Amino acid sequence: MKPINTVAGRIAPLPINDIDTDQIIPARYLKTTDKEGLGKAAFYDWRYDADGNPKPEFVLNKAEYQGAAVLIAGHNFGCGSSREHAPWALMGAGFTAVVSTYFADIFRNNALKNGLLPVIVDEETRQQLVSLAEEDPTTTVTIDLQSQTITLPDGRGVQFPIDPFSKYCLLNGVDQMGFLLNLEDDIHAFEEANSQRVKTTA
Amino acid sequence: MPQTLFEKVWNNHIVKPQTSETPAVLYIDLHLVHEVTSPQAFTEIRSRGLKVRRPDKTLGTMDHSTPTTPRNALGIIPVVDGEAIKQLDQFTKNCADFGIPMYALGTENQGIVHVIGPEQGLTQPGMTIVCGDSHTSTHGAFGALAFGIGTSEVGHVLATQTLMQYQPKTMAVRVDGSLAPGVVAKDIILAVIAKIGVGGGTGYVFEYMGEAIRSLTMEGRMTICNMSIEGGARAGMVAPDDTTFDYVAGRPYAPKGADWDKAVAQWRTLPTDDGATFDNEVVLSANDLIPMITYGTNPGMGMPIDGRVPDPDKMGDVNQKMAMDKALKYMGLQPNQPLLGQKIDVVFVGSCTNSRITDLRLAAEMIKGRKVADSVRMMVVPGSQQVKKQAEAEGLHEVFKAAGAEWREAGCSMCIAMNGDQLAPGQYAVSTSNRNFEGRQGKGGRTFLASPLTAVASAVNGVVTDPREMFVPEMA
Q1: Is the per-residue pLDDT at B474 higher than 90?
Q2: Closest by Cβ to B101, choosing from A30, A75, A200
Q3: 0.95 cut: is pTM over it?
Q4: 8 Å CB contact between B380 and B354
Q5: pLDDT of residue B158
Q6: Stretch (H or E) spanning A144
Q7: Residues 6+ apart with CB under 8 A from A23
Q8: What is the ipTM of this complex?
Q9: Do the Cβ atoms of B190 and B167 come closer than 8 Å?
Q10: What is the pLDDT of residue A175?
């Protein structure tokens, strides 16, 4: 994974509460064995009509929001299934961060493992970002991971939380599996000290 | 210091404790894998030249992208979707290459991942169980800590049998009293989610407790734990008791003989200690519950079946109003309208929430001697081949077929609309599954979530129906 320090870009407003992973990527696009190429499936049923034509009113189909890097959502983004295809699809569609007041647990974990930043802000900031994006689609924000700050166009910086381990991994491009693989001795010791619960190969 | 059930299971599985800089490293006793969320994890393992550390603690099954259509003359369930064929073939190869036992489509133990674990006796109290599937919370009904993970984490578990996790908070969900006839486990969990909302449990593990939970069968407890994630909680647990032990005893992977006695003695130490504290609490009275149904596009948009659809204009919060407007528009419903009497097109009895033998017995008992309305397609999809076999041994399939319902092969089916079973745009379904998200059961399809009893009653009348109207008192 590439190290991430700063994300800067235009913002797209999708101020809907409880956006679930079936909206982020419908299940019929999960019949893949790859991570790549899922961008076109992002929000597919909101983006396209029954004949596959783009719905002009949907934000991501509007010319002025093309190329946006930061999605501003409603509360509780990413609820529902555990599909990691959700962050893969969002990243495939060009997003590097999502802003909400809070995220569903599994989605947040999945996003962090792929370098998609889940940025948690207070409701006032979220609403301000939605207004800014709707009024002026050229609005850009800067998200600095080291200082855990999202900087609004007026220069106001808003801090956001992130767990120190994910932050370290993202800043340094460290993958988490490598960390676990280094714990071989500890894992072995645990297995020695605890009897096996079930043996599926029996 | 007194501990909760969750804390005991968590503490028993710590390989490395949580620090201010790093999450805890937890050992995983059982890893269930299926075809949809595992391929990219196996690719990762291969690309690093790794092995699966403990194939003997891993089990695969095919369930999500598999058809539930009848077998052909050779006894094979034909897969016609090219993408599904490729995914299933890849899964077969992945399991074979890494030595993971796997239940292939149509074989005797195949089924929905959250049905087969308990059925085989692999799901046991006090274990840690994960799967790349959010409904892994189901297994918490046994007093296991069980939760869904993403595909990166599937890779972590395949490679190391461990996971990095921050310790979640705990919420006691207490359901006092007892259920009236016609009101079942599904109604309890729909009421809990309606009360707390779909994000209410985010960051928590639930422990379900109280008289009403104690009185439930294991299948009922599984229905409840299954939908913990619909309230935002990654895991839900029920303390093991004699009901649990009776269910596990004698199953293929259950401990035997002296090992059984030893296991039960250990399991009896798991329930939450007197004086242990939770970070939060929700209390419901089962006495007050009537059958529940959802009207909207997430599982929190639920109400008593005799209720009226909320009026968005009466919502104080602008975000809530917008969400409700959007939901009602999608559902084609009017503010303040009742749902009773709403015409429906499809009834789906199945899914990891409600496809076990007791669910099917209840549905069969209700439909016996009645007919599915001409305007309704009713599908009954057993959760596993074993459930199917048992149901057929009891003649339940004949009851469903005589009523005009379809009796199908095992799988996730119309819960997820990625296997050929799906609603047509605009159709209304009463479904025993777990999600009513837009398009969940097919693009443009509209889902009312309810219990198997409500589903059957609605199938018979062709409109949303309160099952208590048809209820026979000797039913559960």
Answers
A1: no
A2: A200
A3: yes
A4: no
A5: 98
A6: strand A140-144
A7: A43, A45, A46, B437, B438, B439
A8: 0.97
A9: no
A10: 87
What does the domain layout of chain A look like in residue ranges? 6-173
Between positions 72 and 111 of A, the ones with CB within 8 A of B are: 74-76, 79-84, 102-106, 109-110
Place of tokens 């529940």: B292
Nearest CA in chain B to A50: B443
CATH fold of A6-173? Aconitase; domain 4 (3.20.19)
**Considering chain B, what is the average pLDDT of its residues?**
97
The C-alpha of A76 sits at a distance from chain B's nearest C-alpha, in angstroms, of: 6
What percentage of chain B carries pLDDT values higher than 90? 97
Q: Radius of gyration (Cα) for chain B, nearest Å?
A: 21
- Looking at the partner chain, which of A28, A164, A177 has a beta carbon nearest the beta carbon of B159? A177
Query: What is the per-residue pLDDT for B74?
Result: 94
pLDDT class of B319 with cuts at 50, 70, 90: confident
Nearest 5 degrees, angle CA B279-CA B283-CA B289?
Answer: 155
Please state the rounded mean pLDDT for residues B9-27.
Answer: 98
Binding-face residues of A in 136-155 toward B, CB within 8 A: none
Could you give phi then psi for residue A134, rounded to 5 degrees?
-75, -35
Interval B266-282 mean pLDDT: 98
Strand partners, B128: B145
CB-based burial label for B283 (10 Å; 0-12, 13-18, 19+): exposed
Tokens of B405: 């319902």
Where do we find the tokens 């969002």? A90
